[in-house]
Amino acid sequence: MSAGKASTAHTPKRILVLGATSGIAEACIRSWAERGDMLYLVGRTASKVGVVVDDARVRGAAFVDSAVADLDDTAAHPQLLAHAINSLGGLDVAFVAMGTMGEQAQSERSFDAADAVLHNNFIAPASLLTWLANYCAQRHTGTLAVISSVAGERGRKSNYVYGSAKAGLTAFLSGLRNRIDREGVRVLTILPGPVKTAMTESMKGSEKFADVNKVAATIVGAIDKGGDVLYVPGIWKIIMGVIKLIPESVFKKLSLGAE
C-alpha cells in the first residue's frame, strides 16, 4: 500500500431495493455499486430496470440480480421476497423506495384514483415490510430503510391523499420499530422534502428542490450509521416542527403547498 493511503476495504452488503427505478433509489444504487455491494433490484418496467442493472454492474457491484414486478400486487410479495433473498444469499438491508404522488384533483373526484394512491404508498409497502420484518426478526439482524415523506407530517389541501398515505406509513414504521428493535432489527424512516427527480421535474419551483445525489449520499450514510428517523435535507426537521405547531384554526386558512 502506497504511503499516505489508508485501507478502504469494504465488506459487501446484501441489499434489496424495492422500487429500484425511482430517482432516489437509482442514486443510492450508484453509491452501493461503486463500493462493491451485492444488489437485488426490483422495479415495474423491464426496460428501466435493465438500465439500472447494467449501470450497477459497470460501476462495480459485486453481484446484481433483478426482477420486474408490480409491487402493488401484495399476493405476489412472499414469493418475490423469498426469491430475492435466496438470490442474494441473505439480507443485510432492504430499501423500500416505492410510491407515487398521484393527481390530487383526480383523487378528489374519484375514490378509485385515491385508492390507487393509498394502496401504492401505504398498503403495498406495509405488506412488504410485514414479511421482511418477520424474516429479519427471526434472524435477529437486518436494516429496513423506508422512504416516507414530510408530506405525511400534516395534511395540506394540495396533496392530502398522498400525504395521508405517507402519514400512515410513518406511523406503521414507528410501531414496527418499537416491535422489532429489541430483536436486533433496525427500522429507518426516511422523510425527504422535495427532491429534484424525474417525478418532480414538472412541478412548480422544482429547480429549487434538493439535489438527488446529495440526498442519496445522506441516506446511504444514515443506513450505514444507524438511527431511527432521517429528515433529508436536515432543514426539513425544523420546517416541519414549526408547521406542526400552527393551530388548526390558523392552518386551515393557509395555502401551504397549494399550486
Automatic annotation (TrEMBL):
It holds the Pfam family adh_short. Keywords: Oxidoreductase. PROSITE patterns: ADH_SHORT (PS00061). Transmembrane segments: none annotated. It comes from the Bacteria. Signal peptide: none annotated. Gene3D superfamilies: NAD(P)-binding Rossmann-like Domain. InterPro entries: NAD(P)-bd_dom_sf, Sc_DH/Rdtase_CS, SDR_fam. GO terms for molecular function: oxidoreductase activity. Belongs to the short-chain dehydrogenases/reductases (SDR) family. This is Short-chain dehydrogenase. It comes from Bryocella elongata.
